[in-house]
Automatic annotation (TrEMBL), chain A:
This is Vacuolar ATPase assembly protein VMA22. GO terms for molecular function: unfolded protein binding. One of its GO terms (biological process) is vacuolar proton-transporting V-type ATPase complex assembly. PANTHER family: COILED-COIL DOMAIN-CONTAINING PROTEIN 115.
TrEMBL record, chain B:
One of its GO terms (molecular function) is proton-transporting ATPase activity, rotational mechanism. Gene3D superfamilies: ATPase, V1 complex, subunit F. It comes from Parnassius mnemosyne. This is V-type proton ATPase subunit F. The keyword Magnesium does not apply. V-ATPase is a heteromultimeric enzyme made up of two complexes: the ATP-hydrolytic V1 complex and the proton translocation V0 complex. The V1 complex consists of three catalytic AB heterodimers that form a heterohexamer, three peripheral stalks each consisting of EG heterodimers, one central rotor including subunits D and F, and the regulatory subunits C and H. The proton translocation complex V0 consists of the proton transport subunit a, a ring of proteolipid subunits c9c'', rotary subunit d, subunits e and f, and the accessory subunits VhaAC45 and ATP6AP2. Belongs to the V-ATPase F subunit family. Subunit of the V1 complex of vacuolar(H+)-ATPase (V-ATPase), a multisubunit enzyme composed of a peripheral complex (V1) that hydrolyzes ATP and a membrane integral complex (V0) that translocates protons. V-ATPase is responsible for acidifying and maintaining the pH of intracellular compartments and in some cell types, is targeted to the plasma membrane, where it is responsible for acidifying the extracellular environment. Keywords: Hydrogen ion transport, Ion transport, Transport. GO terms for cellular component: proton-transporting V-type ATPase, V1 domain. Coiled coil: none annotated. It comes from the Eukaryota. The lineage of its organism: Eukaryota, Metazoa, Ecdysozoa, Arthropoda, Hexapoda. The keyword Ribosomal protein does not apply.
Amino acid sequence: MTLTDTGDETTEINMNRVCDLLDKTLINQLHLMEEKMRCELNIESSINSGSIHLAKSRYIMGQNAVSIARLPVESSPEFSASTVCEITEVDNMKQFRVVENDAENTVNPLHWFGVLVPQNLHKAKSIFQNTINFVAECANIQMRLLENMANMDMLNEYKKTLKS
Amino acid sequence: MALQAAVKGKLISVIGDEDTCVGFLLGGIGEINKNRHPNFMVVDKNTPVSEIEECFKRFVKRDDIDIILINQNIAEMVRHVIDSHTSPVPAVLEIPSKDHPYDASKDSILRRAKGMFNPEDLSMFGAENYNA
């Protein structure tokens, strides 16, 4: 066996490994795409049911009682979000996690719409809080998709160098 | 301690129609910071596209925002700006709205992911056999 033969064999082994990895990454990509679509549909159904409760509250309280007119504007006093997200590292992978903000100046958003608000507005609030969890899940899948795409690019580049 | 907690968590911002913004703000993601900058923008039919673009760019630049939610129909209006954002953080998530259901073929990330499946890559799965 000559030195050139050994080199060719190593290249072939490397090529097989790269192709195997590319196959796995590609399959993973398809799974992630499917997962993202499923997650978006969860968000959609959640937003739809939340919107129905907002509409019911609007019917009870009046057209302008549940509208952007009640949302804080730039001249409103400063306040912090009660729900925030943080990036944690699980198994060497960055992940978004929804956490409650324990800052002192958070507000109860229900108070923007009045003191005695209908039950539907409470329901809408809990539905949208749940939607935020779906959002974080979807953002995590998106992050993995981007990572996967970067890996595929890298493997394709390596494959090209092996070919040449 | 409070300062440490405030630094730890980052914001979720939203650009959307009235119901999306009211809903997510009810969920508790809304904030007006000490510079009086809100992390949300309500878009209606009279909002100019340039204003949406500016707001999106401002949210991307802010280092206290980790996730930007944008209604898919609004994302369509500023598609070129969204496509130019490629970094994973802040994550830009296109969400459906009450009036516009989710369309996977319009989603920026899914289109990019789909673009990876070029005919050359798929040929190893025998894709040429399924052309009919």
